[in-house]
């Protein structure tokens, strides 16, 4: 038994080594040749101008409501460029000045989910929903928090409600599938195929659904993921989504090293504002902790 435990520990260290430090060529040598890399997204210059402008405005004589709105706006900008601690500080300040900012609570909930501080996350999402029962994303984000907190029944309820609001959104279909898969893989597959019937087949997200439904292989999905970019779409954004969901797909297949590599590729896009970028880091942290606990 001691020898087997030692073998498992050495294997865990080897996989962990592939996850830490800079991404080496050997770290990605199990990925298909069709993997696409793009230059990481850079913060838009207008964000820097807006941050400077808000900093100046905050020195002026303002009402509490105006100050709260400015702190919220600056927090959202910090969040968009990956400065999460500064963003969290500003969202907290915003709520001190205006405790009715549902969007600030929603952002705080997301950040606490990323930190895996789930009690704080639920408190924030509940506040957002109490202030705005029709909030567009609070149910999704609370459902994701519950998914990562292994409260999959509650996660399903929130994600089902979120999907009902827009049944033609492929990403809502995907997150519900991920939650359902934790409880009953066969039932999740059946539900996925039923929900897929309501989707626009020309939508890029439909390709992800097809991958999970077993209609596309990993290689076919990789070949399609750069096609037909819309006018408002960026390649880095498409790749961020594609690699995150490929990571989850490989995880479900038990291909842990490939999953790790895809999550790392999602992070390399620097698309900080995307759900997929946010939770790629959570996935890597959880895999790392799982390996070290063996």
Give the count of helical stretches.
15
Shape: globular
* Helical amount: 55-70%
Class by alpha and beta content: mainly alpha
Q: Major β-sheet, in short?
A: none
- Low-confidence segments, given as residue ranges, are 1-26
Tell me the strand percentage band.
under 5%
Q: Could you tell me the radius of gyration in angstroms?
A: 20 Å
Average per-residue pLDDT, rounded, comes to 88
Distance between the termini: 13 Å
Count the strands? 0
Order of helices and strands: HHHHHHHHHHHHHHH
Summarize, please.
With 294 residues, this protein is an all-alpha fold.
Describe the structure.
With 294 residues, the protein is mainly alpha-helical. The chain has a domain of 58 residues. It is 69% helix and 0% strand. The protein has 15 helices and no strands. Helix 9 runs antiparallel to helix 10, helix 9 runs parallel beside helix 11 and helix 13 runs antiparallel to helix 14. The protein starts with a helix and ends with a helix. 35% of the residues are buried. It comes from Idiomarina rhizosphaerae. Keywords: Cell membrane, Lipoprotein, Membrane, Palmitate, Repeat, Signal, TPR repeat. InterPro entries: Lipoprotein_NlpI, TPR-like_helical_dom_sf, TPR_rpt, Ycf3.
Based on the model shown, name its key terms.
single chain, 294 residues, mainly alpha, 15 helices, 0% strand, disordered N terminus, Lipoprotein_NlpI, Lipoprotein NlpI, membrane, palmitate
Helix/strand layout:
Elements: H1 2-19, H2 45-57, H3 64-80, H4 84-97, H5 102-114, H6 118-131, H7 138-148, H8 152-165, H9 170-183, H10 185-196, H11 204-212, H12 218-224, H13 235-252, H14 256-267, H15 275-292
Helix pairs in contact: 1-15, 2-3, 3-4, 4-5, 5-6, 5-7, 6-7, 7-8, 7-9, 8-9, 9-10, 9-11, 10-11, 13-14, 13-15, 14-15
């Amino acid at each position: 038994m001691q020898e087997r435990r030692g073998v498992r520990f050495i294997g865990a260290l080897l996989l962990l080594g592939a996850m830490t430090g800079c991404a080496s060529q050997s770290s990605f040598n199990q990925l298909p040749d069709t993997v696409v890399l793009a230059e990481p997204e850079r913060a838009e210059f207008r964000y820097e101008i807006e941050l400077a402008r808000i900093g100046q405005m905050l020195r002026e004589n303002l009402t509490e409501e105006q100050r709260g709105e400015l702190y919220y706006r600056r927090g959202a900008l910090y969040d968009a460029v990956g400065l999460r601690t500064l963003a969290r500080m500003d969202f907290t300040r915003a709520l001190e000045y205006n405790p009715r900012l549902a969007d600030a609570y929603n952002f705080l909930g997301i950040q606490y989910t990323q930190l895996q501080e789930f009690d704080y996350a639920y408190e924030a999402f509940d506040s957002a929903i109490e202030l705005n029962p029709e909030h567009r994303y609070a149910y999704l984000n609370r459902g994701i928090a519950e998914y990562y907190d292994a409260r999959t029944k509650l996660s399903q309820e929130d994600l089902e409600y979120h999907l009902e609001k827009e049944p033609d959104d492929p990403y809502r279909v995907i997150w519900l599938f991920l939650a359902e898969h934790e409880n009953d893989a066969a039932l999740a597959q059946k539900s996925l195929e039923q929900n897929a019937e309501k989707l626009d087949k020309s939508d890029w997200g439909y390709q992800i659904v097809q991958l999970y439904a077993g209609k596309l292989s990993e290689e076919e999905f990789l070949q399609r993921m750069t096609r037909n970019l819309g006018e408002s779409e960026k390649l880095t954004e498409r790749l961020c989504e594609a690699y995150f969901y490929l990571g989850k797909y490989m995880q479900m297949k038990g291909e842990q090293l490939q999953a790790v590599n895809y999550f790392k590729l999602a992070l390399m896009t620097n698309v900080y504002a995307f759900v997929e970028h946010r939770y790629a880091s959570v996935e890597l942290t959880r895999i790392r902790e799982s390996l070290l606990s063996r």
